[in-house]
Design goal:
The chain is an alpha/beta fold. It folds into 3 domains: 5-155, Spo0b-associated Gtp-binding Protein, Chain: A (Distorted Sandwich), CATH 2.70.210; 161-328, P-loop containing nucleotide triphosphate hydrolases (Rossmann fold); 348-413, GTP-binding protein OBG, C-terminal domain (GMP Synthetase, Chain A, domain 3), CATH 3.30.300.350. It is built from 9 helices and 18 strands. The strands form 4 sheets. The protein has a 6-stranded mixed sheet, with helices on both faces. A 5-stranded mixed sheet has the order 3-1-8-5-6. The protein is elongated. The N and C termini lie far apart (65 Å).
Length: 417
Protein backbone atom coordinates (compact mmCIF):
# COMPACT_ATOMS: atom_id res chain seq x y z
CA UNK A 1 0.00 0.00 0.00
CA UNK A 2 1.39 3.38 -1.02
CA UNK A 3 0.97 6.27 1.46
CA UNK A 4 2.47 9.67 0.67
CA UNK A 5 1.05 11.76 3.54
CA UNK A 6 1.11 11.15 7.27
CA UNK A 7 0.41 13.16 10.40
CA UNK A 8 2.86 12.51 13.22
CA UNK A 9 3.22 13.68 16.82
CA UNK A 10 6.68 13.64 18.41
CA UNK A 11 7.72 14.22 22.01
CA UNK A 12 11.30 14.56 23.21
CA UNK A 13 12.37 12.48 26.16
CA UNK A 14 11.96 14.01 29.62
CA UNK A 15 15.15 14.87 31.45
CA UNK A 16 15.97 12.92 34.58
CA UNK A 17 15.48 14.50 38.00
CA UNK A 18 18.44 15.72 39.98
CA UNK A 19 19.16 14.01 43.28
CA UNK A 20 19.10 15.60 46.74
CA UNK A 21 21.61 13.64 48.79
CA UNK A 22 24.28 14.19 51.45
CA UNK A 23 27.48 12.34 52.15
CA UNK A 24 27.10 10.35 55.34
CA UNK A 25 30.27 8.51 56.23
CA UNK A 26 31.70 7.56 59.59
CA UNK A 27 34.58 9.77 60.76
CA UNK A 28 33.90 12.26 57.90
CA UNK A 29 32.34 15.37 59.47
CA UNK A 30 30.39 17.83 57.33
CA UNK A 31 30.33 15.53 54.29
CA UNK A 32 28.23 17.98 52.31
CA UNK A 33 25.78 17.54 49.41
CA UNK A 34 26.58 14.89 46.81
CA UNK A 35 23.42 14.59 44.73
CA UNK A 36 24.12 13.90 41.05
CA UNK A 37 22.49 15.47 37.99
CA UNK A 38 19.77 13.83 35.96
CA UNK A 39 20.52 12.73 32.41
CA UNK A 40 19.24 14.63 29.38
CA UNK A 41 16.22 13.24 27.56
CA UNK A 42 16.68 11.74 24.10
CA UNK A 43 15.92 13.72 20.94
CA UNK A 44 13.59 12.55 18.16
CA UNK A 45 14.96 12.67 14.60
CA UNK A 46 13.49 11.97 11.17
CA UNK A 47 16.14 10.17 9.08
CA UNK A 48 15.89 9.55 5.34
CA UNK A 49 16.45 5.96 4.17
CA UNK A 50 16.59 4.63 0.60
CA UNK A 51 15.00 1.30 1.50
CA UNK A 52 11.64 2.97 2.22
CA UNK A 53 9.24 4.00 -0.52
CA UNK A 54 6.12 4.88 1.47
CA UNK A 55 4.96 6.54 4.69
CA UNK A 56 2.79 3.54 5.54
CA UNK A 57 4.69 2.69 8.74
CA UNK A 58 4.36 6.27 9.99
CA UNK A 59 0.62 6.33 9.34
CA UNK A 60 0.05 3.41 11.69
CA UNK A 61 2.62 4.56 14.28
CA UNK A 62 1.85 8.26 14.56
CA UNK A 63 3.32 9.11 17.99
CA UNK A 64 7.04 8.85 18.70
CA UNK A 65 8.76 9.60 21.99
CA UNK A 66 12.38 10.11 22.96
CA UNK A 67 13.87 8.02 25.75
CA UNK A 68 13.73 9.47 29.24
CA UNK A 69 16.95 10.48 30.97
CA UNK A 70 18.04 8.60 34.07
CA UNK A 71 17.66 10.20 37.50
CA UNK A 72 20.69 11.42 39.43
CA UNK A 73 21.84 9.46 42.46
CA UNK A 74 23.88 10.00 45.58
CA UNK A 75 27.70 9.98 45.64
CA UNK A 76 27.71 12.45 42.73
CA UNK A 77 26.42 9.85 40.30
CA UNK A 78 24.78 11.40 37.26
CA UNK A 79 21.88 9.80 35.40
CA UNK A 80 22.36 8.33 31.98
CA UNK A 81 21.20 10.41 29.03
CA UNK A 82 18.31 8.97 27.06
CA UNK A 83 19.02 7.52 23.62
CA UNK A 84 17.80 9.39 20.55
CA UNK A 85 14.78 8.02 18.72
CA UNK A 86 15.30 7.70 14.95
CA UNK A 87 12.14 7.68 12.84
CA UNK A 88 12.90 6.29 9.37
CA UNK A 89 11.21 8.05 6.44
CA UNK A 90 11.68 7.71 2.66
CA UNK A 91 14.15 9.92 0.82
CA UNK A 92 12.20 12.89 -0.54
CA UNK A 93 10.08 13.47 2.56
CA UNK A 94 9.03 17.07 3.19
CA UNK A 95 8.39 18.01 6.83
CA UNK A 96 5.70 20.64 7.44
CA UNK A 97 4.53 22.25 10.67
CA UNK A 98 1.04 20.84 11.11
CA UNK A 99 -0.56 24.06 12.34
CA UNK A 100 1.01 26.58 9.96
CA UNK A 101 1.80 24.33 6.98
CA UNK A 102 5.26 25.90 6.72
CA UNK A 103 8.07 23.69 5.42
CA UNK A 104 10.60 23.14 8.22
CA UNK A 105 12.62 20.29 6.70
CA UNK A 106 13.30 18.58 3.38
CA UNK A 107 15.08 15.22 3.44
CA UNK A 108 16.48 14.75 -0.06
CA UNK A 109 19.64 12.74 0.67
CA UNK A 110 20.05 9.27 2.24
CA UNK A 111 21.07 9.56 5.88
CA UNK A 112 19.93 13.19 6.15
CA UNK A 113 18.40 14.02 9.54
CA UNK A 114 15.86 16.49 10.88
CA UNK A 115 15.55 17.15 14.60
CA UNK A 116 11.82 16.85 15.19
CA UNK A 117 11.80 17.26 18.98
CA UNK A 118 14.54 18.11 21.46
CA UNK A 119 14.84 16.12 24.65
CA UNK A 120 14.52 17.88 28.00
CA UNK A 121 17.54 18.92 30.04
CA UNK A 122 18.40 16.85 33.08
CA UNK A 123 17.82 18.49 36.47
CA UNK A 124 20.80 19.54 38.58
CA UNK A 125 21.52 17.71 41.82
CA UNK A 126 21.81 19.57 45.09
CA UNK A 127 25.63 19.41 44.91
CA UNK A 128 25.43 21.98 42.11
CA UNK A 129 23.72 24.55 44.34
CA UNK A 130 26.18 24.55 47.23
CA UNK A 131 27.65 27.99 47.87
CA UNK A 132 29.67 29.68 50.62
CA UNK A 133 26.44 30.94 52.17
CA UNK A 134 24.35 27.82 51.57
CA UNK A 135 26.53 24.80 52.14
CA UNK A 136 23.71 22.31 52.52
CA UNK A 137 21.04 22.94 49.86
CA UNK A 138 18.10 20.64 50.43
CA UNK A 139 16.59 20.75 46.96
CA UNK A 140 17.32 19.57 43.43
CA UNK A 141 15.88 20.39 40.03
CA UNK A 142 13.27 18.32 38.28
CA UNK A 143 13.96 17.09 34.77
CA UNK A 144 12.76 19.35 31.96
CA UNK A 145 9.93 17.96 29.82
CA UNK A 146 10.85 17.26 26.21
CA UNK A 147 9.61 19.35 23.32
CA UNK A 148 6.30 18.36 21.78
CA UNK A 149 5.52 19.02 18.12
CA UNK A 150 3.14 17.87 15.42
CA UNK A 151 4.12 17.57 11.77
CA UNK A 152 2.62 16.69 8.42
CA UNK A 153 4.95 14.51 6.36
CA UNK A 154 4.64 14.61 2.57
CA UNK A 155 6.53 12.28 0.26
CA UNK A 156 7.79 13.68 -3.04
CA UNK A 157 9.58 11.06 -5.10
CA UNK A 158 13.17 11.79 -6.11
CA UNK A 159 13.27 11.30 -9.89
CA UNK A 160 14.90 13.05 -12.84
CA UNK A 161 12.20 12.47 -15.46
CA UNK A 162 8.48 12.79 -14.81
CA UNK A 163 6.02 11.00 -17.09
CA UNK A 164 2.92 13.07 -17.84
CA UNK A 165 -0.06 11.83 -19.81
CA UNK A 166 -3.74 10.96 -19.89
CA UNK A 167 -4.94 7.62 -18.54
CA UNK A 168 -4.00 4.75 -20.85
CA UNK A 169 -1.39 6.81 -22.72
CA UNK A 170 1.17 4.02 -22.21
CA UNK A 171 3.24 5.49 -19.37
CA UNK A 172 3.41 2.24 -17.40
CA UNK A 173 4.27 0.29 -20.55
CA UNK A 174 7.12 2.70 -21.30
CA UNK A 175 8.42 2.50 -17.72
CA UNK A 176 8.37 -1.29 -17.80
CA UNK A 177 10.20 -1.39 -21.16
CA UNK A 178 13.11 0.85 -20.07
CA UNK A 179 13.54 -0.30 -16.45
CA UNK A 180 13.10 -3.21 -14.10
CA UNK A 181 9.92 -1.67 -12.66
CA UNK A 182 6.82 -3.80 -13.02
CA UNK A 183 3.80 -1.50 -12.79
CA UNK A 184 0.33 -2.86 -13.40
CA UNK A 185 -0.57 -2.69 -17.11
CA UNK A 186 -4.10 -3.21 -18.51
CA UNK A 187 -6.33 -1.99 -21.35
CA UNK A 188 -8.52 0.28 -19.20
CA UNK A 189 -7.98 3.79 -17.73
CA UNK A 190 -6.51 4.44 -14.27
CA UNK A 191 -4.65 1.14 -14.13
CA UNK A 192 -1.91 2.97 -12.21
CA UNK A 193 -3.24 3.85 -8.76
CA UNK A 194 0.02 4.96 -7.15
CA UNK A 195 3.35 6.42 -8.35
CA UNK A 196 6.06 4.11 -9.63
CA UNK A 197 9.81 4.64 -9.90
CA UNK A 198 12.08 3.05 -12.48
CA UNK A 199 15.79 3.30 -13.31
CA UNK A 200 16.69 3.19 -17.00
CA UNK A 201 20.12 1.84 -17.89
CA UNK A 202 21.95 3.55 -20.76
CA UNK A 203 25.32 2.71 -22.27
CA UNK A 204 28.57 3.51 -20.44
CA UNK A 205 26.95 2.93 -17.04
CA UNK A 206 24.65 5.92 -17.36
CA UNK A 207 21.28 5.87 -15.55
CA UNK A 208 18.07 7.87 -15.55
CA UNK A 209 15.40 7.74 -12.85
CA UNK A 210 11.81 8.02 -14.11
CA UNK A 211 8.60 8.60 -12.13
CA UNK A 212 5.22 7.44 -13.41
CA UNK A 213 2.09 8.90 -11.80
CA UNK A 214 -1.59 8.07 -12.36
CA UNK A 215 -3.05 9.55 -15.52
CA UNK A 216 -4.08 13.21 -15.49
CA UNK A 217 -7.55 14.17 -16.67
CA UNK A 218 -9.09 17.57 -17.26
CA UNK A 219 -9.86 19.11 -13.87
CA UNK A 220 -7.14 17.13 -12.04
CA UNK A 221 -5.82 20.32 -10.41
CA UNK A 222 -9.31 20.79 -8.93
CA UNK A 223 -9.34 17.29 -7.46
CA UNK A 224 -10.80 15.20 -10.28
CA UNK A 225 -9.37 11.77 -10.92
CA UNK A 226 -6.17 10.60 -9.25
CA UNK A 227 -3.60 12.91 -10.84
CA UNK A 228 -4.12 15.77 -8.37
CA UNK A 229 -3.11 13.65 -5.38
CA UNK A 230 0.15 12.58 -7.00
CA UNK A 231 1.26 15.61 -9.03
CA UNK A 232 3.60 16.54 -6.17
CA UNK A 233 5.73 13.52 -7.05
CA UNK A 234 6.97 15.11 -10.27
CA UNK A 235 7.67 18.53 -8.72
CA UNK A 236 11.31 17.54 -8.10
CA UNK A 237 11.97 16.18 -11.59
CA UNK A 238 14.43 17.89 -13.94
CA UNK A 239 12.58 17.05 -17.17
CA UNK A 240 8.92 16.46 -18.02
CA UNK A 241 8.17 13.78 -20.61
CA UNK A 242 4.74 14.30 -22.16
CA UNK A 243 3.48 10.96 -23.43
CA UNK A 244 0.60 11.36 -25.87
CA UNK A 245 -1.39 8.61 -27.53
CA UNK A 246 -1.49 9.17 -31.29
CA UNK A 247 -4.87 7.45 -31.27
CA UNK A 248 -6.45 10.28 -29.24
CA UNK A 249 -9.20 12.22 -30.96
CA UNK A 250 -7.12 15.42 -30.81
CA UNK A 251 -3.50 14.91 -29.60
CA UNK A 252 -2.84 18.66 -29.68
CA UNK A 253 -5.82 19.35 -27.39
CA UNK A 254 -4.55 16.55 -25.13
CA UNK A 255 -1.17 18.27 -24.81
CA UNK A 256 -2.83 21.61 -24.04
CA UNK A 257 -4.98 19.97 -21.35
CA UNK A 258 -1.93 18.47 -19.66
CA UNK A 259 -0.09 21.80 -19.75
CA UNK A 260 -3.09 23.58 -18.26
CA UNK A 261 -3.43 21.12 -15.38
CA UNK A 262 0.27 21.41 -14.52
CA UNK A 263 0.08 25.19 -14.58
CA UNK A 264 -2.93 25.21 -12.25
CA UNK A 265 -1.28 22.77 -9.83
CA UNK A 266 2.00 24.59 -9.26
CA UNK A 267 4.13 27.32 -10.87
CA UNK A 268 7.26 25.15 -10.46
CA UNK A 269 6.52 23.44 -13.79
CA UNK A 270 6.59 26.67 -15.82
CA UNK A 271 10.33 26.63 -16.62
CA UNK A 272 10.81 22.85 -16.57
CA UNK A 273 12.30 21.41 -19.80
CA UNK A 274 9.81 19.36 -21.81
CA UNK A 275 10.00 16.56 -24.34
CA UNK A 276 6.97 15.33 -26.27
CA UNK A 277 6.78 11.65 -27.20
CA UNK A 278 3.94 10.49 -29.46
CA UNK A 279 3.26 6.90 -28.47
CA UNK A 280 1.81 3.71 -29.98
CA UNK A 281 3.67 3.85 -33.29
CA UNK A 282 3.09 0.10 -33.63
CA UNK A 283 -0.43 0.88 -34.93
CA UNK A 284 -0.29 1.74 -38.68
CA UNK A 285 -3.00 4.42 -38.45
CA UNK A 286 -1.02 6.19 -35.73
CA UNK A 287 2.15 6.21 -37.82
CA UNK A 288 0.27 7.98 -40.59
CA UNK A 289 -1.19 10.48 -38.13
CA UNK A 290 2.32 11.31 -36.86
CA UNK A 291 3.36 12.76 -40.22
CA UNK A 292 0.44 15.19 -40.17
CA UNK A 293 0.91 16.14 -36.50
CA UNK A 294 4.67 16.42 -36.07
CA UNK A 295 4.75 20.10 -37.11
CA UNK A 296 2.17 20.91 -34.38
CA UNK A 297 4.67 20.01 -31.62
CA UNK A 298 8.21 21.14 -30.88
CA UNK A 299 10.55 18.38 -32.13
CA UNK A 300 8.39 15.37 -31.08
CA UNK A 301 9.67 11.79 -30.99
CA UNK A 302 7.71 8.86 -32.41
CA UNK A 303 7.93 5.86 -30.07
CA UNK A 304 6.29 2.57 -29.26
CA UNK A 305 6.41 1.29 -25.70
CA UNK A 306 5.48 -2.19 -26.96
CA UNK A 307 8.06 -2.68 -29.75
CA UNK A 308 10.74 -0.31 -28.37
CA UNK A 309 10.81 1.85 -31.47
CA UNK A 310 12.28 5.30 -30.82
CA UNK A 311 13.00 4.59 -27.15
CA UNK A 312 16.85 4.63 -27.39
CA UNK A 313 16.68 8.04 -29.11
CA UNK A 314 14.24 9.26 -26.45
CA UNK A 315 16.50 8.16 -23.58
CA UNK A 316 19.52 9.81 -25.19
CA UNK A 317 17.68 13.09 -25.56
CA UNK A 318 16.51 12.91 -21.95
CA UNK A 319 20.06 12.15 -20.82
CA UNK A 320 21.51 15.22 -22.60
CA UNK A 321 19.11 17.53 -20.76
CA UNK A 322 19.46 15.82 -17.38
CA UNK A 323 23.27 15.72 -17.61
CA UNK A 324 23.41 19.42 -18.44
CA UNK A 325 21.19 20.29 -15.49
CA UNK A 326 23.24 18.06 -13.18
CA UNK A 327 26.43 19.93 -14.12
CA UNK A 328 24.80 23.30 -13.55
CA UNK A 329 23.50 22.41 -10.09
CA UNK A 330 25.26 24.39 -7.32
CA UNK A 331 27.55 22.47 -5.01
CA UNK A 332 25.69 22.71 -1.72
CA UNK A 333 28.75 21.71 0.28
CA UNK A 334 30.84 24.54 -1.17
CA UNK A 335 28.25 27.27 -0.69
CA UNK A 336 28.72 29.58 2.24
CA UNK A 337 25.85 29.41 4.70
CA UNK A 338 24.32 32.79 5.38
CA UNK A 339 23.50 32.91 9.05
CA UNK A 340 21.57 35.84 10.45
CA UNK A 341 21.52 36.35 14.19
CA UNK A 342 18.54 38.16 15.65
CA UNK A 343 18.45 39.24 19.28
CA UNK A 344 15.62 37.59 21.19
CA UNK A 345 14.55 38.94 24.58
CA UNK A 346 14.83 36.35 27.38
CA UNK A 347 11.20 36.95 28.33
CA UNK A 348 8.13 39.04 27.57
CA UNK A 349 5.39 40.33 29.90
CA UNK A 350 1.79 40.91 28.85
CA UNK A 351 -1.37 41.76 30.78
CA UNK A 352 -3.85 38.91 31.05
CA UNK A 353 -7.01 38.13 33.10
CA UNK A 354 -6.42 40.60 35.92
CA UNK A 355 -2.76 39.66 36.10
CA UNK A 356 0.26 39.20 33.85
CA UNK A 357 1.63 36.41 31.67
CA UNK A 358 5.39 35.95 31.42
CA UNK A 359 6.77 34.02 28.46
CA UNK A 360 10.30 33.17 27.42
CA UNK A 361 12.43 30.05 27.18
CA UNK A 362 14.67 30.61 30.28
CA UNK A 363 11.70 31.61 32.46
CA UNK A 364 9.49 28.70 31.39
CA UNK A 365 12.37 26.25 31.79
CA UNK A 366 13.06 27.49 35.32
CA UNK A 367 9.40 27.02 36.31
CA UNK A 368 9.11 23.56 34.74
CA UNK A 369 12.19 22.32 36.58
CA UNK A 370 11.10 23.60 40.01
CA UNK A 371 9.72 21.27 42.68
CA UNK A 372 6.95 23.44 44.13
CA UNK A 373 6.52 21.06 47.08
CA UNK A 374 9.99 22.06 48.27
CA UNK A 375 10.05 25.48 49.94
CA UNK A 376 13.77 25.96 49.36
CA UNK A 377 13.36 25.13 45.64
CA UNK A 378 10.65 27.80 45.36
CA UNK A 379 12.95 30.37 47.00
CA UNK A 380 15.65 29.44 44.48
CA UNK A 381 13.15 30.00 41.64
CA UNK A 382 12.35 33.42 43.06
CA UNK A 383 16.03 34.35 43.03
CA UNK A 384 16.39 33.16 39.44
CA UNK A 385 13.45 35.23 38.29
CA UNK A 386 14.88 38.22 40.12
CA UNK A 387 18.26 37.81 38.42
CA UNK A 388 16.54 37.58 35.04
CA UNK A 389 14.81 40.92 35.71
CA UNK A 390 11.25 39.58 35.76
CA UNK A 391 10.30 41.46 38.93
CA UNK A 392 11.63 44.77 37.59
CA UNK A 393 9.65 44.28 34.39
CA UNK A 394 6.47 43.51 36.35
CA UNK A 395 6.97 46.63 38.43
CA UNK A 396 7.32 48.75 35.27
CA UNK A 397 4.09 47.20 33.95
CA UNK A 398 2.26 48.33 37.12
CA UNK A 399 1.88 44.97 38.85
CA UNK A 400 0.22 45.21 42.28
CA UNK A 401 0.68 43.15 45.44
CA UNK A 402 -1.04 39.78 45.19
CA UNK A 403 -1.83 39.90 41.46
CA UNK A 404 -1.58 36.56 39.62
CA UNK A 405 1.48 35.94 37.46
CA UNK A 406 1.09 33.17 34.84
CA UNK A 407 4.17 31.29 33.64
CA UNK A 408 3.53 28.27 31.45
CA UNK A 409 0.82 26.31 33.35
CA UNK A 410 1.76 27.69 36.77
CA UNK A 411 0.03 30.57 38.56
CA UNK A 412 2.11 32.59 41.04
CA UNK A 413 1.40 35.64 43.19
CA UNK A 414 3.32 38.86 42.80
CA UNK A 415 5.10 40.14 45.90
CA UNK A 416 7.48 43.02 45.14
CA UNK A 417 9.73 42.53 48.19
Amino acid sequence: MFVDQARVLVTGGKGGNGCCSFRREKYVPRGGPNGGDGGDGGDVYFIAEERLTSLLDIQFHSHWKGQRGGHGQGSDRHGRSGEDTLVSVPVGTVVRDFETGAIVGDLTQPGQRFQAARGGRGGKGNARFATSTNRAPRFAELGEPGERAEYLLELKLIAEVGLVGLPNAGKSTLLASVSAARPKIADYPFTTLSPNLGVAQLSEYRTLTLADIPGIIEGAAEGKGLGHDFLRHIERTKVLLFLIDLGDEDPVATYETLEQELEQHSPVFADRPRIVALNKADIPENREAFESLRHRFEDPILISGVTGEGIPELLERLWIIVDRLRRNEPDEDSEAVDRSYVYEAPFTVEKEAGGFRVEGKPVVRAVRMTDFENEEAVRHLQMRLQRLGVFKALKRMGAQQGQPIYIDTVELEYHPD
